[in-house]
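== Fold encoding ==
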Amino acid sequence: MQAKSFSKTDFALALLAEDPTNWVVPEYIADGLRWLEAEIVPPEPEPGGANVEHSEAVGEGAEQLAAPEPGDGLAA
């Protein structure tokens, strides 16, 4: 297959049109996707748990994301 005759768009659309249950995914790819999902999916809420306040949900390190205060030595 030559690059000139290969359309990435057509290839992607053909994949989207297929039934995903028929895809054969290499095991190392499936393992990586499961790992990634575990890293980015938020944990399930605890049953019967109260709503968490925003300040609690932010957690440690939130102060690092705050906007700099005026006069912190940053040029405007």
Summary: The CA atoms of residues 54 and 62 lie 11 Å apart. Confidence is low (pLDDT under 50) at residues 61-65. The radius of gyration is 23 Å. Helices lie at 8-17, 27-40, 54-58, 62-65.
